[in-house]
Design brief:
This protein is α/β, with parallel strands linked by helices. About 35% of the residues lie in helices and about 20% in strands. It binds S-adenosylmethionine (SAM). S-adenosylmethionine binds next to helix 11. This is TrmH family RNA methyltransferase.
Length: about 290
């Protein structure tokens, strides 16, 4: 990989290329984005689907490359997105279905794929205030869980997803797929337990940690007075003691039946909708 690519990839300004060969170097670069190392080195990631690409552009995400299937040529929305991409200095590739399948590793790929610049928020950019809810995930490992949590956090109106320690990459293809576009809608922060705890102190954020040994029913907590961070544990080992001890509240979701615990994404959803219950209403019901 060249230095230029390492710094975010060469910007082939405003070109439209037709590609049918799987060994085309640009196609190879895009395929390499399935590896975390390549995503980190280039600072980019792949998102599939026309609607997702349109939404991302509307939200101001920077597109490096737009790839669309020959069969999509001439469709007004695809043409609009292609024009926008070129205007912003990106590259547009018109490719065969075979190339698109190999890029997305799918037999029936979406007609449109966008390569975007990754975007991370910092803790200090979050500006917590009453009514804001954050999800803090300790070492989340499963890409599907993380994608589902990002989607659910967006749907519940959360203000950010904080990734503590060694987490799975939110910009992997599997996670981005599971977010259904919400990866573009919610701030993502990469941090660690120490930084997180220091931030919550200076920002006045109440940490409600979830734990199978929590003695407080999660429905009895007052979530209305302060900004809240819902702290969730790792899929296998749960929350480490140090994080559990540092929390303001240690809550549990009561269970029946034989299951030891809930799936992490399910537990996060239960917590989010309870913590934001006072802020959520059907239209016309507010
Ligand atoms: N064996 C792990 C343990 O002992 O904690 C199970 C972890 S569970 C699959 C993943 C995370 O989901 C937990 O760390 C917690 O944050 C949350 N969770 C799952 N079920 C829960 C429950 N009933 N009450 C509170 N949190 C729960």
């Amino acid at each position: 990989m060249t230095d230029q690519m390492r710094q975010g990839g060469p910007r082939r300004v405003g070109q439209v290329k037709e590609v049918t060969s799987l060994s085309n170097p640009i196609v190879k670069e895009i395929k390499a984005l399935t590896s975390k190392k390549d995503r980190e080195q280039t600072g980019t990631f792949m998102a599939e689907g026309l609607k997702l690409v349109i939404d991302a552009l509307e939200l101001g995400w920077i597109i490096r490359t737009l790839v669309y299937a020959k069969a999509a040529k001439g469709k007004p929305l695809v043409e609009q997105v292609a024009t926008k991409t070129v205007a912003k200095g990106g590259l547009v590739l018109e490719v065969s279905e075979k190339v698109l399948s190999s890029i997305t590793r799918r037999d029936n790929p979406q007609m449109v794929v966008g390569i975007f610049e990754q975007r991370w928020a910092s803790l200090d950019a979050l500006q917590p205030e009453k009514g804001k809810t954050y999800v803090a995930l300790d070492r989340v490992r499963d890409p599907g869980n993380l994608g589902t949590i990002i989607r659910t956090a967006d749907a519940a109106g959360a203000a950010g997803v904080l990734l503590l320690g060694d987490c799975t990459d939110p910009f992997s293809l599997e996670t981005v797929r599971a977010t259904m576009g919400s990866v573009f809608a919610i701030p993502l922060v990469k941090t660690d337990p120490e930084e997180f705890l220091a931030w919550r102190k200076r920002a006045g954020v109440e940490v409600v940690a979830t734990h199978l040994e929590g003695s407080v029913d999660y429905r009895t907590v007052d979530y209305t007075k302060k900004p809240i961070a819902l702290l969730m544990g790792n899929e296998q080992s749960g929350l480490p003691n140090a994080l559990a001890k540092a929390a303001d509240r240690l809550v549990r979701i009561p269970q029946q039946g034989r299951a030891d615990s809930l799936n992490l994404a399910v537990a996060t959803a239960v917590m989010l909708f309870e913590a934001r219950r006072h802020l959520l209403a059907l239209e016309g019901n507010q």
